[in-house]
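2024-03-11 09:14:02 DEBUG pipeline.ingest accepted 1 chain
2024-03-11 09:14:02 DEBUG pipeline.ingest length=222
2024-03-11 09:14:03 DEBUG pipeline.predict start
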Amino acid sequence: MKSIRMSGVVVFALAMAASSFQAGAADRDRAERWDTTLQARFTGSETLSFDNGASAKLSSSTGFGFGFAYNFDARRAVGFDFAWNNINYSGSATPSGGGAPQAISGTAYAGSMLVNGTYHFFDGPFTPYVTGALGFTYTDTGVPAGVGTGCWWYPWYGYVCGPVTYTKTSTDFTYGVGAGLRWDVTAGFFLRAGVQQQWMTVGAASGTPSFVIGRFDLGFKF
């Protein structure tokens, strides 16, 4: 009899917990609401090959981003992401007239703007998702591309002009796919973690360079 009463208490507790979770889920509904996110992004290392035997090994890096999206219903959302990071690299440059390659190293800056579509598998507050994105990435390689003149206002000195080294930049088409998990913690706050595979159509590179990106988002709904 005691075990029966205990079983009844357990069943009642589970029923109350399920009821509470479902009530909370209704409060955390994302349908027809806007999301905004603050993002930490972790990009894995990658080696790129270029024309004439040049190469670059990109170190793993940590970047940041922000984004916003509109949830048409509990499962479908469309939005924009903006991300940037600094990437240390080493590699080799091949002399145009022949000869031994020259070792190089430096830091590149990359900034991306991507439009994305996301599908959540469940209506509830905890759900896996898949996403696809496309857009553009601006890269400043840090490689000198010429010398010009620039002018600045300095403290105490005033207006000063002098030589400036310009660096090679490019803007490349970018696209990717990803998957992860989302948890709508409260009516106005959610967490999201996922992994993305991202490709860039870098003109001088052999093939289409790709990068694995892990991300963790702090999100807010309104």
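2024-03-11 09:14:41 DEBUG pipeline.report The longest strand covers residues 126-154.
2024-03-11 09:14:41 DEBUG pipeline.predict end
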